[in-house]
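Worked example 3. Consider a protein that binds calcium ion.
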Amino acid sequence: MRCSGVGWLFWTVVLAGLPAQEPPAPATPTPAPSTATAPRPPASDGMVWIPAGEAVLGSQTGDHDAPLHRVRLSGFWLDATEVTNAQFAAFVQATGYVTDAERVPTAAELPGVPEAERRAGALVFRAPTEPVRAEEYWRWWQFVPGADWRHPEGPGSSIAGREQHPVVQVSWRDAQAFCAHHKKRLPTEAEWEYAARGGLLQQRYVWGAAAPAAGRYPANIFQGEFPYQNTAADGHLGTAPVRAFAANGYGLFGMSGNVWEWCQDFYRPDSYGDGARVLVDPQGPATSHDPAEPGVAKRVMRGGSYLCSDSYCLGYLPGTRMKSTPDTALCHTGFRCALTAPGPVTASRQ
Ligand SMILES: [Ca+2]
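Given these inputs, the predicted complex is written out as structure tokens:
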């Protein structure tokens, strides 16, 4: 279903209501192995090797759909950054690809909607000018005809000067097409969270336990009174360049805040089971189910965005989940690619 609906927004609001609880006592951090000297296969330029391992993943804040659970993963490669506007432009230049937001939805995609009301476009955050109630998400999210990856805020906006910012207004299907063109794939949800934690297991943040504070902002999130007053104290009102903040323990940038990132998996609230067994290289459920919109298949998004803050949305915490339909494009959502390939050659193997 194209994004004329606002069901996904409901879950934005649900996320907003998550209490900011203290996490359990952190486990002893596992140091991330050095990747500084790791040779990279030709197909993985700009990627970081994530070593095989076992870890406890899930929400430290008690999210009902993300209980703590143990996973065991094989090693894989992951893009060091979110895919940039420059990279996506090169992909479009090479392939002529047209994104979902640039297409007029078909009658089948928007059943019951008159042709005159079916428009190409995407969802854009527009800050209200005065305080609004947190549940009134329609006051700051608008479907804007003409909004797409080249015009993230709609007609009149552009990505000029934002070449190194993450591409946004790309759907899950667009992300799939980009990764496939590069002979890569989207990361699974388990891979994404394991990589985001950078070896610091069961920590509240991807950088450890210290909360963001005035003068110390480890990620691009929202400061001020959401949604009407963004002080941009971290230096960024909207998206930031993909390497604007320090990398995590694996050398990955932007795994918290900036933009949500599409994952491969279907969304279900019970994806992780009861947490009693170790999930080995989990690929996610075979089907999707969102109790808020039964029958509407959704894919997982991770990592939060520049619109997250402890006062509204905890999506920038590594164990927190989001989801949307695979053809939805949003001004705060992008992606990065993963690759299954042999790992770096170590000295002992040479
Ligand atoms: Ca910011």
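Take a moment to read the result before moving on. Residues 121 and 145 are 4 Å apart (CA to CA). The two ends are 51 Å apart (CA to CA).
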